Amino acid sequence: MNGKDRQGLGWGERHFPNADLYEADLAGVDLRGADLQGADLCRADLHGANLEDAEMIGADLVGADLVEADLAGANLTAADLSGAVLTGANLQDANLGQTDLHGADLTGANLQNANLRQANLRQADLRDADLRGADLSDADLSDADLQGASLLGGAGAPPPGGP
């Protein structure tokens, strides 16, 4: 699909593996539980979208707008979210293991109990993010901004004062 909008998606359909949704306008769309494995969502507008429990393994979300999106319980293993904007997004209980979040904006995001094992968070903006209970084992937090972030109780969390 290269229509750049919601047309042609077949709403009600939940299976879009390897879909071409480059720069698609999906703001506010309900994609709960959708299969978006390997989908190209580069620079897509997913502002306020509901992606709760979505399967997004290996999806390409480089530069995507996920401001205030609901990704609770979503599986984003090995997805590329570098440069994505996830300000205020809900990623509680999400699987972000081995995910590339290099330079992503996660300001004020809810990452409670999220799996961030081996995630690339280099230069990520995590100001005021809630990382309580998150697993940060072997995650790369080099040059990440953790000012005001809540980190208590997470595995592999950096000591107070930053990485």
Task: Tell me what the structure shows.
The chain has a single domain (17-154), classed as E3 ubiquitin-protein ligase SopA (Pectate Lyase C-like, 3 Solenoid), CATH 2.160.20. With 163 residues, the chain is mostly loops. It has no helices and no strands. 0% of the residues lie in helices and 0% in strands.
Q: Brief description of this entry?
A:
The protein has 163 residues and is low in regular secondary structure.
Low-confidence stretches: 1-5
Mean pLDDT: 90
Q: Give the percentage of residues in beta strands.
A: under 5%
What's the shape? globular
The CATH topology name reads Pectate Lyase C-like
Q: What's the architecture, going by CATH?
A: 3 Solenoid
Radius of gyration: 15 Å
Which terms would index this structure?
single chain, 163 residues, little secondary structure, Pectate Lyase C-like, 0% helix, globular
Summarize the helices and strands and which ones pair or pack.
Layout: no helix or strand
